[in-house]
Amino acid sequence: MKRTIPVIITSVVGTVLIFSVFFPSGRTLGEDFSLFFDIIAVFAFFLGGGNLVRIHITKIYRQRPDWGFSIVTLIGFFITLTVGLFKLGNAEGISGSVTAAGSLLQEIFVNIITPLSSTMYALLAFYVASASYRAFRAKNREATILLIAAFIILLGRTPFGMMLTQWIPESFSILQIPNLAVWIMNSANLAGQRAILIGVGLGVVAMSLRLILGMDRTYLGSDSE
Amino acid sequence: MTKIAAVFLCLIVTPISGDILWAEDLSPAGNTSGGTFSSVAPYQPAPADNVVAVDHKYDNGGVIDITWDKSPDDPREILGYNIYRSRTDEPFEMIGFVLPGITSFADEGVENDIPYRYKIGTVREGGEFFSDVSAPVAAAWELFNFDLLNLFLLAIVVCGAVIWFISSARSGKKLFVRKIGGLEALDEAVGRATEMGRPILFIPGILDMDDVQTLAAITILGRISRIVADYDSKIRMPVSRSLVMTTARETIRESYLAAGRPDAYSNDMVQYITDEQFGYVAAVNGIMVREKPATCLYLGAFFAESLILAETGNSIGAIQIAGTARPGQLPFFVAACDYTLIGEELFAASAYLSEDPKQLGSLKGQDVGKVVAMAAIVIGTLSMTLASAWNISFMDWVLRVMLSIFTINVP
């Protein structure tokens, strides 16, 4: 019974939502279910916050390795929660918008969260460099093709690429590096991406059918009835 | 004295009549003719014309679409258009206003099966001019959206093929499914973590349970956590969504139960971090660097964090298996991970790992969809090339048929 009811719910809701696309009388069902999901997700925030507090308090209490970080986490969590709940520093008071300009929560977001996020995002530049170095080593045929394509695209996005190949006559302009780069992106690359997306679409259909038909119950932890 | 009085009267009356000169009488009876005009008007501006009202196609009723030809004075002299509606034998009432240049309006305040008439008031300085009244039209409820008939038929073909192959597999027919390297390596990856005494890190992406990739990740988690429970290994799953946390806990708990080891399960296996994208990345990177998991699995929806996570995993020497349906992130995973599940492989993983013939049959059903897609690409490319190069009208017709089949009119 514990597994049968979720499977029935999945089957009914899945089937209804598929048909709601084609039958106008059910057109708003998708939005309605999405709203139900949002309502459930709001309640789940409490679970998430509770889990975060419990894990870090346990870590501090038992003085596990790096428990100092947990203190920082909890302080940050409770300060942000208090500032947001009571709308501290908000010119319009408790009735104003939580993200009103000048409110303390907005200040925390602009001056702490945004710079920290930007810092993490900036790390991507270094990771791209190290990953590119590994990916573009011409150790086999595929990697060599990748290297050549990447080289053309990198050159094609710079004035140097045009300078190198501007002597090529107009009738063969496709061979100019910037045009080659555009061709690689718009033809070869786009065709590959579309092939992947067609496969994704079909994969989603097959997986959804397995879930709706109750064949795949691994999301319930086990295949058994 | 009489002359002076007459001139004075003219001075007063002219501006007043100028005001009412352009306006139509909107008495309850409703003047349905064109704009009224006094004998002293310098010229008569043309109002909007050719008002057509039709029932909004393929909806639940309650909507009528109105279109009209704009006034020749639009936009120089026109301030906008008022839309008027009348139920049968009732006066007109204004239901909306649109700016110059706009020639359509959707009336969403009508009742089904009641005829309505419409007219457009062209508003300009000093007055309003009216169009003729449209023919009466009633909003109606339609059962099926025929704009999506092609999508419906395609869905029937693909879903029918999937169900047919499932039935074939059920009847014992042997089906060939190609090997997927990333999934074949899962056992080895879990075994390696067990031998090294280090945890397995499972990252289900950063989207919530309403994303199909997260759902696929959770179905794979069910398989993996069962292997982890069997091997008595450890799984660590930091998540960025509360609902994913609760779902993943249930999934892992049930897997441990199915493996006969409920005592080995702990809620701490799944930990909520934060919804904030880069805050989550920072925390996961910290876990990787501190705990040095032997195996990292990234399965789900990923964005800019994909490479940051995968490169950190690479730097600690973990065996890494990734899978996502986002083409933009796949190159990063391919560059940084040992195995990558590309697109559909992510959705096929659960069925593949189950080795259940019925589920494998669903994978074969996908192939029919691929055959349809390939045939459409080849025929479409050929017909477009032939139609444009040699102007063959038959190929042009084929091309139009193909476009009508594969163009989806999203409501």
Describe the model.
The complex is a heterodimer of chains A (225) and B (411). By secondary structure, chain A is mainly alpha-helical. Chain A contains seven helices and no strands. Chain A is extended, with a radius of gyration of 27 Å. In chain A, 16% of the residues are buried. The mean pLDDT of chain A is 89. Chain B is α/β, with parallel strands linked by helices and 411 residues long. Chain B has a six-stranded parallel beta sheet with strand order 11-10-9-12-13-14, with helices on both faces. In chain B, strands 3, 4, 6, 7 and 8 form a five-stranded antiparallel beta sheet that branches. The N terminus of chain B is likely disordered.
Q: What descriptive keywords fit this protein?
A:
heterodimer, A: mainly alpha, 7 helices, 72% helix, extended, B: 411 residues, alpha/beta, five-stranded antiparallel beta sheet, 14 strands, 19% strand, elongated
Short description:
By secondary structure, chain A is mostly helical. Chain A is built from 7 helices and no strands.
Given helix and strand content, the structural type of chain A is mainly alpha
In total, how many beta strands of chain B? 14
Which pair of protein chains has the largest interface, and what are the residue counts? A-B, 65 and 94 residues
Report the span from N to C terminus of chain B: 72 Å
- Overall strand count of chain A: 0
Order of helices and strands of chain A: HHHHHHH
User: What is the C-alpha radius of gyration of chain A, as a whole number of Å?
Assistant: 27 Å
Strand order of the largest sheet of chain B: 11-10-9-12-13-14
How many helices of chain A does DSSP assign? 7
Percent helix of chain B, as a range, is 40-55%
* Estimated share of beta-strand residues of chain A: under 5%
Tally of alpha and pi helices of chain B: 12
